């Protein structure tokens, strides 16, 4: 990708597709710098995690329809009060029985992503620690819901690889 004397608007179609992690960071810094210079950057990407860090406003389009538009924070507003508990299950481990505090879950491979209420964070960490102690999980992370979670909610479906969404 080459940018020469960008105009007032730049269109980038999946600029970080097939790019190694170091160049990806460089490209996102360049995209951000263009925006800081007042250039309107139109960006097409399927990597919502990257987009969340690099854009001021975004639109979610699925099946040719505009589903939502706004800031990354406004897209996640409906998810406030929830957290994402992500568990990396041990190879060969079955999906553990989910406690009632889990509001939703998706498993892809060894990765189990659950949604919990913020008020249940302490209990969720306890459950994750039990899974670690039993050898069912190898690690876990607790954090805010992401733009990816909002995208899945807005489009009404997860990945075709999902073993199930509860």
How is the secondary structure organized here?
Elements: E1 9-13, H1 21-36, E2 40-44, H2 48-54, E3 58-62, E4 65-70, H3 72-75, E5 82-89, E6 102-108, E7 111-117, H4 121-133, E8 137-144, H5 147-155
Parallel strand pairs: 1-2
Antiparallel strand pairs: 3-4, 5-7, 5-8, 6-7
Can you walk through the features of this model?
This protein is α+β, with helices and mostly antiparallel strands. The protein folds into two domains: 9-56, no CATH class; 77-155, Alpha-Beta Plaits (2-Layer Sandwich), CATH 3.30.70. Helix content is 30%, strand content 31%. It has helices spanning 21-36, 48-54, 72-75, 121-133, 147-155, and strands at residues 9-13, 40-44, 58-62, 65-70, 82-89, 102-108, 111-117, 137-144. It has a four-stranded antiparallel β-sheet with strand order 6-7-5-8, with helices on one face. Strand 6 and strand 7 (111-117) form a beta hairpin. The termini are far apart. The model is unreliable at 159-166 (pLDDT under 50).
Task: Give a brief rundown of this model.
This protein is an alpha+beta fold and 166 residues long.
Number of domain modules:
2
User: What kind of assembly state do the chains in view correspond to?
Assistant: single chain
Order of strands across the main sheet: 6-7-5-8
- In percent, how much strand structure appears in the residues? 25-35%
Shape: elongated
Query: What top-tier CATH class of the largest domain fits best?
Result: Alpha Beta
Cα-to-Cα separation, first versus last residue: 41 Å
SS field, number of helical segments = 5
Attribute tags:
166 residues; alpha+beta; Alpha-Beta Plaits; 2 domains; two-stranded parallel ribbon; 8 strands; disordered C terminus
């Amino acid at each position: 990708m080459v940018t020469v004397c960008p105009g007032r608007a730049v269109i980038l179609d999946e600029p970080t597709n097939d790019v190694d992690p170091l160049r990806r960071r460089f490209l996102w810094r360049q995209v951000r710098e263009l925006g800081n210079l007042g250039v309107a950057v139109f960006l097409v990407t399927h990597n919502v995690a990257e987009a969340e860090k690099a854009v001021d406003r975004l639109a979610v389009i699925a099946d040719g329809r505009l589903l939502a538009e706004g800031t990354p924070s406004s897209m996640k507003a409906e998810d406030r009060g929830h957290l994402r508990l992500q568990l990396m299950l041990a190879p060969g481990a079955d999906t553990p029985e989910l406690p009632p505090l889990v509001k939703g879950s998706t498993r892809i491979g060894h990765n189990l992503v659950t949604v919990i209420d913020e008020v249940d964070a302490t209990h969720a960490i306890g459950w994750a620690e039990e899974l670690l102690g039993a050898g069912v999980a190898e690690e876990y992370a607790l954090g805010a819901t992401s733009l990816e979670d909002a995208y899945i909610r807005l489009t009404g479906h997860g990945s075709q690889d999902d073993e199930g969404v509860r």
